[in-house]
User: Fold these one by one.
Assistant:
Number 1:
Amino acid sequence: MQDPSVEKDRHGESPLTIGFIGTGIMGAPMAARLADVGHRVQAWNRTPDKLTPLQAAGVVAARSPEAAAHDADVVIVMLSAGPVCDEILLGETGIIAAMRPGSCLVVMSSIPVDTAKGQAEAASPHGIGYLDAPVSGGERGAIEGTLAIMVGGEASVFERHRPLLATLGRPTHVGPAGSGQLAKLANQMIVANTIATVAEALLLVERGGADPAQVRQALMGGFADSTVLDVHGRRMLEESFVPGGAAKWQYKDTQTAMAQIARLSLDLPMSRQGDALFGDMLEHGDGDLDHSALIRELRRRNGMPVD
């Protein structure tokens, strides 16, 4: 690991003190990357054992969320859902109250648009900048630092923190607070619907008598090609469903999307059907599998073997 006392990190920026909240599948490699480039990272996780491997990478284990936020230049939050984030962030004993003026709160969790806007409003009177910056790219993207990062908030705050976010992937400013979450909902709609379509296509060719693996290979490079066909299509064929992105979190996001769609008075039938399929998948006990395991739900519907 690079010594945190170095004058500049690998992006040419002075090292920062970063509070990192949530070190699960995504958060752990993200925190490790930030420490690796020379930032001082003090992390908290509800399950303390998950911090132990990170300490070898130079991450300091904080005893509480407030301790992680103490004297931090930036606090990054990577928790599972909006209510969990609000519980940690808001109120007299929340992280926002513990942060110093001039610092910045970056919420990289996937949360409802209105939740992000509320957090931004709560941070502002304390003189704290706010960015909602959800990500796409899964565990592999977090490990490799290639995440797509969709950022909402003030443009000036984004520009100040662009080099930091670039350590984790490719940040793009998409609008005011809450816009990052809107972009993530669009991403999750595309991912969910494409997973369903790829699964249906593979079942079509399987039942029709073609070789699904060879059909997938034939489609690569054409207009039907996509990351989902490449990565998740392979997982479907290999029945390799160790979660990079668990189906239960995909469903959480599609449910959030459906609520936002209703608020905007839109009729989006493809997304409605995709959301229902993931709901059925969870009802059948597959919520902890990778979201590519949606093919199992479609197999059930069609009387095809699942295990």
Number 2:
Amino acid sequence: MLPLESVGPATRRRAEFIAVQPAGKPVQIGFRRRSSHWVEVIETCMVLRPALVEALPLLRGALDGMIEDREGLRLHIIEADNGLDIALSGGLKPGFETQVRLAQTAEAAGWARLTHDERPVAVREQPWLGLGQASVPLPQRAFLQPSEDGQAILQTLVLAAIPDEVGLVLDLYSGHSTFALPLAERGHRVAAYEGAAPAISALEAAAREAGFSGLTATTRDLNAWPVSGAALRDAGAVVIDPPRAGAKAQCEALAQDGPSTIVAVSCNPSTFARDARILRDGGYDL
């Protein structure tokens, strides 16, 4: 058993907030209480990076009188390597005034990108994230590891588990590439599979820019259409990092035809236990 790894305070670089404005009151931005519509307003936070918290009062001012969605406006904020990437979704007061006020706020704050319902409001430059030699152009509302330190820990553990002599590595549920790009940089051929097309587009762009010709990326719903058969048998190792729902169908295929090394990453102990049992029943040792 390896020792427990931890990350420091004020290192989380992404969060999703809710913004509401009760009648006659200022805009409130924070998190909903569990199973409740109550919004706990965030003024300070020991978990989030300072840049995310510092953006909240600016957004409160910019959104004053502009929120029309009774359920609240969602604010997805990421600190990319070159600034904040903020995606708003929900009902806003239509019109020129709203767009100008938001754009001016973004410009004055130096945010990399501000969008509303996937439409650009203000873009200073494409938000990007460095992964070794590669730079990944982040899609809107990108999913990335919550902290840079946590990402580095996972990358170190995953790469250490894959023998250097392995030729082809499959990265299943790759996202925009926590693992595929570092594996390609180390010299492996990599085939990445992910259901979200924007993430695959970002991965392909980063691989081209870095010159990783041995990396291929495919958009594929692995729950409905798992990689199986010869595609698994040709691989020397598999990395699998599914969402919270796990990877039941894909693990059933791996149990039948998977390579000798499978490195599994999980954020949900219950679905990991289910999927690990499938692999154990297929002959793998944990």
Number 3:
Amino acid sequence: MTHALDTAPDRIISLLPSATDLLFDLGLGERLAGVSHSCDHPGAAGLPVLTRSIVDSSASQAEIDRAVSEAMRAGLALYSVDGELLDAIQPGLVVTQGVCEVCAVTPGTIEAAVRYLPGCLPAANVLSLEGRSVAGILDDLRALAKAAGVANLGEKLAANARTRWDAIQPVQTAPRVMTLEWVDPPFYGGHWVPEQVERAGGVNVLGAAGTDSGRASWEEIAALDPDVIVVMCCGYGLEKNAEFARELLAKTELQAVRDGQLWAVDANAHFSRPALGVVRGAEVLAELLRGREYVGESVRLLSQPTSA
């Protein structure tokens, strides 16, 4: 939901990494007064941290999946907000999201945190970003820019991103692509990720643009027999995703593994977050589908040949 503010806010709280990235894209880093525990933009270092997760991020993927599933069944929020600190900062704008309860703080968590505090943050000061597609991400950029008082800059950045998106040259071979947002258990990519694959010239074997990611099984993936598998586990960069992909080299029943078409990418920078990085992600995918790595952004995982 979008709220119009009477004046441009001088103190902004961002409770999700993508909003922090967008605020710096808009040149508003100096107005940031606090961030979430997941915000990793270099410019946000040292700012007050207002959230924490009930899930141990250092646990294995299977353990994280189990903890999240148990919390969801119990109706527990995965994140908590430091309401007293939020109240003390008295922000003019708080940015959160309503797309995914697993990914970041939602408006309901903020409301619960400040309900009984003296300042009781007005609903008009909360902007919830809702983009589930590339177009939705650009709409969120515009809404954030408008709420922060820099609407014209938001329009310019959105137009530039759309031009760059339209300029991507898709591969002509239409390879069948499996994107993995988690590997243990496997989850296929959703929201804007299928759009990225399609813009790069690939065909999604699971997942549809604008819909949630979903759980799959390795038997199902083997039956679909994708030409290319791209590991882009949510919340991780290239190095960690390469580790996850390396674990899949043993799955020689998958044609993509046997053909050397198992890849890892930087999910945080280009795929997991609804920010301008998704455009770069589609560019990386288009080159990946041509068999080309981008140093620091994508890597191909190959089985080691057995010695005679």
Number 4:
Amino acid sequence: MVCVNDGEEVLFPSPGYPIYESMAKFLNLTATPYEYVEKNGGWGLDIEVLEKLVTPKTKAIIVNNFQNPVGVAHTRAEMEALAAFAVKHDLFVMSDDPYYQIVFSDFDKSDFVHIAALPGMADRTICAYTYSKSFAMTGWRLGAVLGPQAIVDAVTKINTNDEACTTHFIQKAGVTALTHPDAKKFTKDMVAELEGRRDLLAKELSTVPGFVPLIPKATFYMMVNVTGAMELAGTDDLEVFRRGVLKETGVSFCTRAHFGTPLAGESQRYVRFAFSGVTKADIEATGAALRPYFEGLKK
């Protein structure tokens, strides 16, 4: 609302958080998706493809490092390429950073840089942060926006007229989350627990016929390539597949279709598992339910 005008274009990641696309369309913008591709058992960007999407009406790009649903953790080289792309085409960058602190030990933190810290980016980057993930304050709706003063002033004006202010006790809880040693320990312990769940989920799903888990280095989501499993189930429809698995096994998951309009030419099929609100016993039970069902389909 403060960076892009009616009828202009914004680039957004797909698969990605679905509100990117729906909000752009609600504001009468052209929402143009850019894709992630499988790389080395995880996900990455193809900058050359991104270049082909730019038009004279493109004014902004949404960047979501440590991303829902794919769990991508961008390397410094990828962030530098995105920054150079934004500078080249004079784009605003909306950096959505909700999972900034939920990063696992196999991500090389020395290879990390925030896009706003790169040359030419401070005056064109708007960073959005929430307490929802790192401090498990999801329902409290507390966050912050950082960026150029003119942009922040406009955001403040909209926010003041939209919701007035955040409840005082929630503001105080946010200060405690940022400053209290126990809060920092909570986040550290939570991330360690999530990493254990991630590893167990990958182990369980890798034993299910037709399931190929893609290991996230951040967040608490795992995308799984189920192209082979859908062939076993005799369908190429993700929703039919999802409903069938739920009915036969009791296992629930989202599909790629929940995370933005699919791009033309997509040939692989994906589902997303969340491992935030489950126990390790739940994860083991998931594998125990899925394995016999898909092993039976092979016969």
